[in-house]
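pasting input
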Amino acid sequence: MKLIIHDLNQSEADRLFGHHPDDAILIGKDQEIHQCVGCFGCWIETPGLCKIKDDFRDIGKRMAQSDEIEIISHCLYGGFSPFVKNVLDRTLPYHQPYFTIREGETHQKDRYKNHVNLSVRFYGEDITLPEKATAERFVEYNGVDLHAQSHTVSFYKNLEEMEAQRQ
Amino acid sequence: MKIGLINGSPKAIGSTSEVLLDELKALLPKDHDLVSIGIHHAMLGVNKLEDITSCDVLVFALPMYMGGIPSHLLHCLIQLEKYLTESPHDITVYAIVNNGHYEGVQNETTIAMMKNWTHRAHLKWGQGIGIGTGIMIAEAKDVPMGHGLKKNLAHPYSTFVNNLLDRESSDNLYVNPTYPRFALLQGANHDWTKQGKAHGLRKKDLTIAP
């Protein structure tokens, strides 16, 4: 299954994902989301499930059922837009609380056995070179942190350009 | 000089960012005007916007969330960027970023994002400091600076404060805990099990995959 996390409005999403495969699940701004407050309840009280009762309580489980995660986000300061970052912030239950060493650095152990392929598509008319450099390092970090099988990052000026290259 | 100490943690009370700002405050001379501002939600009121933009120096303290800035703070940075670019402001920006992992350098991308925001907001970037195992430093809040878990923090913090008071820009600093990684991670893993037990869960319950 493919999980697509995006920050597009409905008409943009319809245009871009009009013919998306049946096994793809879209996560967009139409879903209710609250911010992660760093309570660690998803580790020590309800392991694997966020304590916040909104549409993202089981985001870890949904990620575990995916073999591919595609993120489409406006590039903001070299990272994700607030909505997409909020979704990523809420993926803490995807991990165990216990530490391990990965790529020479401390990260959390895997709760699930899957290793997703992560692809990130940033868009924005005026992404600066330092922002691009930050975004590339950020996605690399996410790849290691999520223990992804692979990670790719690409940049587009606008959705038209993305649409043309995504097909 | 007016220095804004901004707590960018989503936790309103008891955050590591709060402790790290308190440690910084203790090192600042008393003749400066210090303003403490909490950004714990995704929207800034007019009073906070005015407080922040009236400072000469801003110090953001925040946790690294998944390699970047917590989402609620991104909302507020967008709001601030709009407000700040309406007219020129002579503000120098510093950032203290902590993470729950061992390596301070894991905060590098978050600090880079704060620097990128500074440029978008037409402000001057000062310096970032990335601190590993932030939560343990916070729990050792009564330990004097330069001792125990804070041994490795003293010198970088002193350099950071000197740069801040001179409004100088400098390379980012990264701080690892004093103790060896293996020992610290073993202790932290044991602590997670203990916290789970407090909620009636066994060690293997914490690893279930729903």
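fyi Chain B is about 40% helix and 20% strand.
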